[in-house]
Structures are given as structure tokens and as C-alpha cells.
Amino acid sequence: MPDLGSDSAPLSEAVTDDIRVEVMASYSPENSRPLEGEWVFQYTVRITNQSTSTVQLLGRHWVITDAADQTEEVRGPGVVGKQPVLAPGESFKYSSWCPLKTTTGMMRGTYEMARTDGSHFDIEIAPFALRARYTVH
To answer: Which carries the bigger pLDDT value, residue 6 or residue 133?
Structure first.
């Protein structure tokens, strides 16, 4: 599992309205079933509030594209069953996974955020690649 606490650079990083989103992703061979056409990728996201206002993550919108150019959109409330509130300087980190029907793909998206004044805004999740390791048979 990728560790955003390490010195390695994130695969994707974006800052929108002083909210930073960093993502690390890796292929999960133990959860994949290549013979059935399913490759699973794990990803870890760290969201850091670099603003002077408290914010809350309300929802997510992912756009997942595989190597066959098939695109799936996933929308839902929060992340991993949570809608974290981040005071200035705080971070929230979570891990999840994504199955693909090809050995490579890409993810990108947005998080819907709210400020304490009730205003809503979207923050970018910059695109990142999903790549399975190739093996020689």
C-alpha cells in the first residue's frame, strides 16, 4: 500500500482554493484476477487544508478510464463512509481501491467541499495513472 508519509513524491497533486489533494496508487496483485479480466488498484489520498477556514468534504466524483477507453463515473457522499471536517492545517488520509478490465488506466476527479459559511466549492483530484506490473510467461 502506498504511504503518503514517505519521502516519495505523490503520483498526483493538485491545490484548489488552498486545499491540497495528493494521491499515491499501486497495483494490487493479491486482489486481482487477470484470468477473469480484472486488475485491482489501491490508492491512498491525503487531503490537506492549507486555508484559513474550516472545510468539510461532502462528496466525491471520480472519472475512471481504462486502456480500452471505457469510462466510468462514480459519485457519492463523502469518502469511505466519512465526511471529514478539516480545520486549518489539518489533513485527512484514506485508502480505497478500483477494479479495471485492463492492465492500465487513469483516474481523476473532484471532491465537493463546504465552508462553515455554507458556500460549496469543488476541488480537483489531478489525473493519475493505474499500471499493473507486466510479467513474462
So the answer is: 133
